[in-house]
């Protein structure tokens, strides 16, 4: 590992206009970090990565590197790009346990963060590093959001999230688990109790249903519910997955690791929502793919499909008359997720769009003054690095807002 990443660092051309940095959604200063790494300034490099992106250690593992930093490296045009994410992973992982914050000047203002996924964690860290007293709430019993309850263990070890928790302790960030906002507590209660501003990073946790017959049968499950705790489910040997997005790929790979023998993903069209590499890995793990299958209903035997007829451009132009009953012990629906509506329904003035996503302005402020939001709850299911980038901007806007309120 060490030799590999040193070789990678030595291959970096230190471009004046680094395309890799342009390809990174949070503009990681890649050449500068590589320079520090080569000069044995590991802690400085770690500090720079962390201050630019508090989620760096996770991004280095779960980002779509081919589409972002590595995919933009000029060396990749004629050969192999610099695999910076491996260098970033080494630096940020090493830095994680050694991070020190020094003396932080206290601002004597309390701020709340609802949701402890990548967006909430990023906002909490930035606010605490700027001297604000932060309380973070989450409806789950552990922090991490989709880092812990969505992305499977074989892709992202939960021990990294446990180690990350130490950073929050060092910053005196208070954590209230098992606390759902929009039930016993509301955003209004926070202002009543002296919080100067509120950050919302509650993500998208309501699996979308298809509105078809059979969705409530005992052997039918939702993808994100399954991923939250795969050990709690008995799927049997033959598993059918409806959908071909990234979540569906994770469901397939997890089911294969939990005893399923035959796992098949079904999609109506020939267009795949998942990224290419996620699909390649699912194929390597043994998942099968069936295209042109439009789900009609689910029976106890398994899903029933209408079989699509394609034209020469692979466009669906109709369906065969006969339905296709597939035999499966379990059927998992992994089509998409939407936000729960608890916050909107319990907060006067908090507006969502037609999809239930929170409406924000250019400063990430919601339609209620002092309430800010970022991440999936604003845009729908996206990525860790995008949630971190937006939460960083939201936290800076919160700081400006709280300074103006003096
Ligand atoms: C299976 C799966 C695989 C993925 N793989 C990748 C990947 O490889 N790479 C990548 O970049 N992205 C991936 N993503 C997407 C990525 O995880 C999300 O974009 C990211 O986690 C969004 O961060 P967030 O903080 O906005 O929301 P979340 O991570 O969803 O966190 C929201 C938090 O808020 C809490 N919450 C919700 N409602 C309330 C409430 N009312 N009160 C209190 N707390 C509440 C939730 O419990 C959760 O902890 C994946 C997503 C899934 C589902
Ligand atoms: S944050 Fe993601 S895209 Fe940016 S340099 Fe790191 S791994 Fe690459």
Question: In brief, what are we looking at here?
Answer:
This protein has 406 residues and is of the alpha/beta class. The protein contains 17 helices and 15 strands.
List the helices and strands and how they pair.
Layout: H1 2-11, H2 19-23, H3 30-38, H4 42-52, H5 56-62, H6 69-72, H7 84-98, E1 110-114, H8 118-129, E2 133-137, H9 146-149, H10 158-170, E3 174-176, H11 187-192, E4 195-200, E5 206-207, E6 220-222, H12 223-228, E7 238-242, H13 246-257, E8 262-266, H14 276-285, E9 288-290, E10 293-299, E11 302-310, E12 316-325, E13 330-333, E14 337-338, H15 342-346, E15 371-373, H16 376-379, H17 384-404
Parallel strand pairs: 1-2, 1-4, 2-3, 4-15, 6-13, 7-8, 7-13, 8-9
Antiparallel strand pairs: 5-14, 10-11, 11-12
The structure holds flavin-adenine dinucleotide (FAD) and iron/sulfur cluster (SF4).
Protein architecture, described:
With 406 residues, the chain is an alpha/beta fold. It has 3 domains: 2-98, Fumarate Reductase Iron-sulfur Protein, Chain B, domain 2, CATH 1.10.1060.10; 110-205 and 339-404, FAD/NAD(P)-binding domain (3-Layer(bba) Sandwich), CATH 3.50.50; 207-336, FAD/NAD(P)-binding domain, CATH 3.50.50. It is 38% helix and 18% strand. The chain contains 17 helices and 15 strands. The protein has helices at 2-11, 19-23, 30-38, 42-52, 56-62, 69-72, 84-98, 118-129, 146-149, 158-170, 187-192, 223-228, 246-257, 276-285, 342-346, 376-379, 384-404, and strands at residues 110-114, 133-137, 174-176, 195-200, 206-207, 220-222, 238-242, 262-266, 288-290, 293-299, 302-310, 316-325, 330-333, 337-338, 371-373. The strands form 4 sheets. The protein has a 5-stranded parallel β-sheet. A 5-stranded parallel β-sheet has the order 6-13-7-8-9. A 3-stranded antiparallel β-sheet has the order 10-11-12, with no helix packed on it. Strand 11 (302-310) and strand 12 form a beta hairpin. Helix 8 (118-129) packs parallel to helix 17. The longest helix has 21 residues, at 384-404. The mean pLDDT is 96. The site of iron/sulfur cluster has 15 residues, from helix 5 and helix 7.
